[in-house]
Amino acid sequence: MSLDLLKANVGSTFVIPADGRIAFENEPTPLPGPRLFLSGCRAGNQVVLRHDVGARTARAVEDLVANEPPWFDAASDPACLGELIALMARDTPAENVSRSMIYRLPHGLTFASETRLLRSDTAEGLDWLANLAQAGMPQHLLEAGFLGAGDFWTPWCVALEGETIAAMGFAARIASCAADIGVYTFPGFRGRGLAVAVTAAWSSLPELADRPLFYTTLTTNLSSQRVAARLGLPAFGASVRVS
Predict the structure, then answer these.
(1) Residue 135 in domain
(2) FRET label pair with 130: which of 39, 93, 97, 203, CA 20 to 30 Å apart?
(3) What pLDDT, on a 0 to 100 scale, did the predictor assign at position 113?
(4) Is the same domain home to 164 and 199?
(5) DSSP track, 185-225
(6) SS3 breakdown of the chain: % helix, strand, coil, rounded to 5?
(7) Domain count of the fold of the chain
(8) Are residues 11 and 77 in the same domain?
(9) Could you list the residue range(s) of the whole structural domain that residue 85 is in?
(10) 236 in any annotated domain
């Protein structure tokens, strides 16, 4: 079961055609994706490579990972990581290596909060977003990179402080097999538990009820890990990207 969940996580993270290679990131605005993505859980590991990795390198990488013990703790690198990076350098030297922690996000979480929450599955939430689109994006959203209503990736949940958007949870990755939340708390509103509140509310959205949910964070993002800890999210696995 855990290995099926690992495959579901990979399937929601990337668009992978029948050839089994990464075509691009599964985002509304697709990016090329990493050249190598290795993820693991207690049941085993999975590696996927981008479409432009050479066949000889791909075979060597797959053979190496096939003999790697299950890797699920992002606090330490998989034993074969150095060899993987060396193999990838046959084609192009690695420019970036990043590591992430993968948590399971249970459905229907609750978190006591007096903050007003709006959701994309309600008339109130949709009316609010339509009004926002008509009025124009507030400056603090523009500064954070949210350029329009289309950047509220459905399904979403926002936390309001008065009439000001303080935090939001949205579908950073969504496919029929799984979904992964993206969470952002705007500067000036951090440290108030708002990320916890929107994450819990997002997990209860009906649109997500029929697929496993994940919460993924870089090993360097300590504030995001504190959100996972406050919600008691079960650790699931780890991943590493080589670009």
Answers:
(1) yes
(2) 203
(3) 87
(4) yes
(5) E-TTSTTSSHHHHHHHHHTT-GGGTTS-EEEEEETT-HHHH
(6) 30, 30, 40
(7) 2
(8) yes
(9) 2-102
(10) no
Output the six-digit token pair for 239.
Answer: 């991943």
In a domain, 230, yes or no: no
Averages of pLDDT over runs of 10 residues in the chain (243 residues) are 91 96 92 96 97 96 96 95 96 93 96 92 93 87 84 93 93 96 93 95 96 97 96 96 97
Query: CA 167, CA 48: separation in Å to the nearest integer?
Result: 33
Burial of 33 (0-12, 13-18, 19+ CB in 10 A): buried
Give 43's DSSP letter. T
Q: Which of 67, 102, 137 is the last residue of a domain?
A: 102
Q: Which residue's entry shows tokens 């300590």?
A: 222
Whether 23 and 63 have beta carbons less than 8 Å apart is answered as no
Same structural domain, 19 and 78:
yes
Q: Which helix (H) or strand (E) holds 72?
A: none
Of 49, 67, 102, the residue at which a domain comes to its end is 102
What is this structure's pTM?
0.93
The Cα-based distances of 239 to 9, 102, 193, 194 in angstroms read 10, 7, 26, 26
Tokens of 44: 């085993």
- Give the integer Cα–Cα distance in Å for 112 and 213: 21
N- to C-terminal Cα separation, the chain:
29
| Distance, CA of 2 to CA of 132 (rounded, Å) | 41
CA distance 115 to 202: 14
